[in-house]
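User: Please predict the structure of the protein below. I'd like the answer in structure-token form so I can feed it into my own downstream comparison script.

Assistant: Understood. Taking the following sequence of 615 residues as input:
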Amino acid sequence: MSARYLKKVLKEQEQHLQRPPHQIEEEEEEELNGSRSEPSDSSVNPFYLLNDGDDPDQGDDSEVADESVDVNVSELKPSGLDSKVDVVSKSTNKSKKKKKKRGQDGSLTGSDKAEKPWDAILETLSLEANGVPAKAGDKLVKQCAPSVLRVDSKYLNAENELRRIFGSKVVKSFEKSNQAGSSRQIRGGRPRIHTHRKTLLVTPSDHWSRWDGSLSMEFLETRDGYHYFRYVHSSSYGQAQSAFEAAKAIHDLNGIASILLGHPYHLGSLLTMAEYLKFVGDHQMSADALAKSLYALECAWHPMFTPFQGNCQLKFSHDINKPLFTALFTHIKNMDRRGCHRSALEVCKLLLSLDSDDPMGALFCIDYLSLRAEEYAWLEHFSESYKSDNSLWLFPNFSYSLAICRFYLEREESSKDSHTDSTKATANDLMKQALMLHPSVLKKLVAKVPLKDKVWTDIVKHAFFRSDQMGIPSLDHLINLYVERNYIIWRLPELQKLLRDAAKLVIETLETNKSDAKDWASVRKEAFSSEKNEYGHLLVSDFSDSVPSIPPENLQDFMVDPRIRGLAQNEDQVANPLGNGHAPRDVANRNALAVLFESMLPWVHYGDEDGGEAD
């Protein structure tokens, strides 16, 4: 669309919005009586929108810049499984252009400036494009999506962050060594290499299969400024899902691995294998299986699904959407272990924005990732802007993390000789407030970090810090999550000093005014009033840095559900999940990863009974 024609449309919309109320009422009456005929939109030549040349009605208006402007006005319309997006280009009749009046200095006069509020009308077009029509006389309302959760896509990929940290040469040499160490000679020729689609979450490997399109996404509705979507399975994917459920019911890892031969992008099988490989200690192959699932999930995105803007919702209540949440949460933990904290933070923003109910507990690790990524200013802004109720400081993780955040921001301001914002509380005040609100955190940190100095022993002996339970199920569980996730931060000497000074200040305050403890206890009970553990679905082990492992001889008891950690309770249900006719003792004496690949590849066979390898 040319800039000239765009200005015509915008000017007519502006005039339409600026009509007096009595004129609007008269026009509505005329429309009801049928005495007023509106020009049809079909009378406008749609191909005129493509014209970037001169306007025939323009005359000699050479003062208008000939620039191309792209405007995408679309409406999302759900239509079942095969939903489509109808892009409707709307325009009004052409009107003659008038030359702009300019003053003696060549600038636009004040009246012309007032007649062309381009920004406001462009914002109107943006609202209409998102399914929120603007009404005459109403103030423009911005989208409800919190801008604080917008994702910076250039930080999403962990490989890019590794290159920024270590340099491209180091990363390339490391990747080559991994490829050389994991290369396998397979009879029948070399593996095929495909050209894959470019994705933002992960970088597809050359040895992956071509995307089969077995997964897609449909649009559901637009409500309160958010667009709701959900994934859709194809018929072939549904058959693979049925086979996966049957294999999972009998804990058959070999059956789950065989599904990937015909359906290489089956999410349930990929996530199960990623979990299994993590348990046997092959983290590289586990990350590869997880990356394949993320690649498949991103390839299936709807054309109008823009999750990086923070205005799209994929509800966890739909079972078909759950693999995305599981994959993203596991991906965050993997990137954190690799030291890619900024990438993990961006993915955590994405995870939190997809479902406002936060089913995976992203809210209880986003502060940790922000501190590790040194995004202190963003964390303060997030705590003030998220849901606009300023209540995040009541959670244990935010009450302590915001004090740490303010500590580093104050140090940055002092190093730059800039004035400190007097409207904000100091780091010492925030840390004192955190200790008064959640005193049991201190004793748990002393044991977990650990802090072995005698001064900590004396502090913990005080009556206020003696207990490690608050007696509130939800709060005690959140405190356990915080200590398990964030304890490593407190190994820094400067933060230990901050915590120690604040704890001593709390003790001094309580000696002079004992009623403060009761006041803060009332705040705790009001903030966490439920008698049940509302966060029991969040496992403490999911927020831990430690990676569990099980010996190969116990693999037959492994529970394959990616959301359930542990072993099968009934050992008689699983006789030999990976044996292919061999006894479990033969599997236990061999490399678990080799056994897995032998079960997945039919052209590779077992060796002799004495443990010989395949050809």
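That's the full token string. The first strand starts at residue 75 and ends at 77.
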